[in-house]
From TrEMBL:
This is rRNA small subunit methyltransferase B. The lineage of its organism: Bacteria, Bacillati, Actinomycetota, Actinomycetes, Micrococcales. The active site is at C418 (nucleophile). It comes from Leucobacter weissii. GO terms for molecular function: RNA binding; RNA methyltransferase activity. GO terms for biological process: regulation of DNA-templated transcription; RNA methylation.
Length: 486
């Protein structure tokens, strides 16, 4: 299966109901997204947005393309095992382009309940269009074999072929085995080890779109729900500034609220709680200086900026990447007058500017494995390896050391990661406390519970707060708060 590659831009998507060769445009877009992710290391959400804009799909076709791409990426581990069993060959022996055609086909058969003839015929035509035409018979045969057996039987075959119970569960729930073990350890640290399968299942359910209603919007969540109810907006979830969109285009729903530009934003409610835990840990005083040390792409910075403006504080937003710094500038447009955007390595003194040792609140939203957002970033689970963790945890520690040096006496430091992995959460915090004896940990659980709109079940003996998709409907955000006592 070594046919020439398609053109560099991917499959040609034509306007109208069908693409070149009789393939639906939605399937061509979905294939291009999978190819962008695998061959160009693209982020699925960015690749999808780009391909949808290029294809100019209507709402219905765009929704189909989104489900195809996200579903195939989310279910890739399980689908690959089923393909291997049906084809009687290792997945790595299947040409990369054909693999993606098959993944899309299997998702239609098992994840979308598409009629067999439609899923198989479209996949064969897609194979003919984008990959090795000589392999169309192979694609046809594999998919028809898969269609003849129900999901329960395929899962039973996956378990029978697995080398261990962990490998079986990992394949059946479409998670790498090392991720499964890390999630189990994190849950077990809270006495919730029996919730592993519930968490793995939650990772495979597309989340609803979360919206942040920032201070300065001129309305409260109840008013926003009344104004945007026809657009699917509901004032629900744990964040006191959070909204949830049941379906539809978030930009259209935001526009329906007619709020000032930048005051309603797409943002997971776990991220909202992480930023609010810092700003509302105790009442703020006018003139306070706040620092977001790793600000890009700016979602949490936008919350900090809105809160700062309301109390008369200022924010320094530091980001090492110029592209991400531009995203921060765009994110804080509603409160730009209280924000200074800087571009430095967060570990260097220059990131603190002239206010070294004088920040009243510092947020370190550190680069991490992203294992807490697997439902939102379906490709992330296949990108990271356990060998990535030592470098990430070293960076997290260095950023926290710099942040601790930027705190004024009595200042508060928030350490946030979108990962529940213990090596990136409690281990990092415990190391920081050992290195900086002038820091003491605050009760983040109590603070998050108090600011939340609904009761939050936060378990474990640690003072830090760990959110979970299966329990709280948020990304698995970790939040620790520390105060400088001397």
């Amino acid at each position: 299966m070594n046919a020439p590659r398609p053109p560099a831009g991917g499959a040609t998507v034509l306007r109208g109901g069908r693409g070149d060769g009789g393939v639906s445009r939605s399937r061509l877009v979905a294939y291009d997204v999978l190819r962008d992710v695998e061959e160009r290391d693209a982020y699925a959400n960015l690749a999808l947005a780009s391909r949808l804009a290029e294809a100019r799909l209507d709402a219905r076709d765009a929704a189909l393309a989104t489900e195809l791409a996200a579903g195939a990426l989310r279910g890739r581990g399980r689908y690959d095992r089923i393909i291997e069993l049906a084809a009687e060959r290792d997945i790595d022996r299947v040409d990369a382009r054909t693999r993606n055609v098959l993944r899309l086909g299997v998702h239609q058969l098992l994840g979308m309940r598409t009629a067999t003839h439609a899923a198989v015929n479209e996949s064969v035509e897609l194979q003919r269009r984008v990959a090795n035409r000589a392999a169309t018979g192979f694609v046809n045969g594999v998919l028809r074999t898969i269609a003849r057996t129900d999901e329960a039987e395929w899962d039973a075959r996956i378990e029978a072929a697995a080398g261990s119970p962990d490998e079986a569960l990992a394949a059946r729930t479409s998670h790498p085995a090392w991720v499964l073990r890390a999630l189990r350890a994190a849950l077990a640290s809270e006495g919730r080890g029996d919730e592993l399968e519930a968490l793995l299942s939650a990772d495979n359910v597309p989340p609803r779109v979360g919206l942040a209603l920032l201070p300065g919007s001129g309305m409260d969540p109840g008013t926003a729900e009344a104004l945007g109810g026809d657009s699917g907006i509901a004032a629900t979830g744990p964040s006191p500034i959070g909204l949830e969109l049941s379906a539809g285009d978030p930009m259209r729903a935001i526009a329906a609220l007619d709020a000032p530009d930048g005051t309603v934003r797409v943002q997971d409610q776990g991220s909202q709680l992480a930023a609010l835990a810092l700003t509302r840990a105790r009442p703020a005083a006018p003139g306070e200086r706040w620092l977001d040390l790793c600000a890009g792409p700016g979602g949490k910075t936008a919350v900090l900026a809105a809160e700062a403006r309301a109390v008369g504080a200022t924010v320094r937003a530091n980001e090492i990447s110029e592209h991400r710094a531009e995203l921060v500038r765009g994110a804080v447009i509603a409160n730009a007058e209280v924000v200074e955007v800087a571009r430095h390595d967060g570990r260097e003194a220059a990131a603190l500017g002239a206010a070294e040792g004088r920040f009243d609140r510092v947020l370190v939203d550190a680069p991490c494995s992203g294992l807490g957002a697997l439902r939102r970033r379906p490709e992330a689970r296949w990108r990271k390896q356990p060998t990535d963790l030592p470098g990430l945890t070293a960076l997290q520690g260095e950023l926290l050391d710099a942040a601790a040096g930027g705190l004024a006496p009595g200042g508060i430091l928030a350490y946030v990661t979108c990962s529940p992995h213990l090596a990136e959460t409690r281990v990092v915090v415990n190391g920081l406390l050992k290195r900086h004896t002038g820091l003491r940990e605050l009760d983040a659980k109590a603070i998050v519970r108090e600011l939340a709109r609904v009761p939050l079940d936060l378990a474990g003996e640690a003072l830090s707060a760990q959110l979970w998709p299966h329990r709280h409907g948020t990304d698995a955000m970790f939040i620790a708060l520390l105060e400088k006592t001397s």
